[in-house]
Amino acid sequence: MTTPEEAPPTTLVLIRHGESNVTVNRVIGGFRSCSGLSPLGRQQAERLRQRLSETGEVAADVLIASNFQRAIETDKALA
Questions:
Q1: Is 17 exposed, middle or buried (0-12, 13-18, 19+ CB in 10 A)?
Q2: How far apart are the C-alpha atoms of 73 and 18, rounded to whole Å?
């Protein structure tokens, strides 16, 4: 069994979703009003996926997203 001193460190990386439709439409974004990413937000998520793929700067074992559509779309782009 590995002791805490021998265990490799855990790295937590937080990624915010891309631009959302509610931001573009200037409405308060909650669970009921979240309609996902704007076209720019989808482009931002795709660019981040490309960057992470090319650089290898973050290697994720697990992706966790909230149940807001904007977060789910960002997560799917990165997965």
A1: buried
A2: 9
Task: Kindly report the pTM of this predicted structure.
Answer: 0.81
Q: What does the DSSP assignment read for 38-74?
A: -HHHHHHHHHHHHHHHHH-----S-----SSHHHHHH
What token pair was written down for 1?
A: 């069994």
Q: For the chain, give the number of residues.
A: 79
As beta bridge partners, residue 37 has 20
Segment 27-79, tens digit of pLDDT: 887 778 889 999 999 999 999 999 999 999 888 888 889 999 999 999 999 88
Please report where in the chains the tokens 């977060």 appear, as a residue.
71
Structure tokens of 60? Answer: 């994720």
Number of other CB atoms surrounding residue 55 within 10 Å:
8
Q: Are 76 and 55 in contact (CB under 8 A)?
A: no
